Amino acid sequence: MHGYGCHHGERHFGPRGFSGQISRALGRGMGGGFGRFVGDGELRLVVLALLEDAPRHGYDVIKALEEHSSGFYTPSPGVIYPTLTYLEETGHAVSAADGNKKVYSITTDGRSYLEQNRKVAEAALERIRRIGERLARARQWFDGSEGREHDRDIPEVVPEVNEARRALKGALAHRLHAAPPTQRKIADILRKAAEEIQALPQDPDDIDLG
């Protein structure tokens, strides 16, 4: 097993810029995880797991990971194609010409290697899925791109929460293009609010959002 260090060139989870600052602020308040990379060894196992499901082009691997993360994790071709090449060189995958492209399939050795490390692969896929879900939930709550008429209530919360959420979305929408110092102040406000919410005592009737 190779190391699980951060993959240089890997794309981050979530948006960049001001909205990225908001996501990071919220992520810290929710226990982190919003900016996680996928380690080299984990990514190889994840790709093998995808090839186990079906032979794929490199683009298919990228799209599969994007879909698995609710659209928030899109590894770059500069990461996926070298990973596929590495898997082929180690005998864990084999490629065949498909027009101007290559389609990759898992080999017997690849299946054996994946089976030996199944828990690591499944844990990485589950982490990608859960972080994607959390970011999708954050976007649903805080994205200011939709008007109020299209902003449906979040189910299973009291009306006051939806009203406060809309007020926050409106305030953010008007300050998305603020100067960086103002953006940082807004991020600090959101971070403090997230920390206060996270610090609230757990009630028996609380709904677990993961």
Automatic annotation (TrEMBL):
Residues 47-115 form the Transcription regulator PadR N-terminal domain. SUPFAM superfamilies: Winged helix' DNA-binding domain (SSF46785). Pfam families: PadR. InterPro entries: Tscrpt_reg_PadR_N, WH-like_DNA-bd_sf, WH_DNA-bd_sf. Gene3D superfamilies: Winged helix-like DNA-binding domain superfamily/Winged helix DNA-binding domain. PANTHER family: TRANSCRIPTIONAL REGULATOR YQJI. This is PadR family transcriptional regulator. It comes from Phyllobacterium salinisoli. The lineage of its organism: Bacteria, Pseudomonadati, Pseudomonadota, Alphaproteobacteria, Hyphomicrobiales.
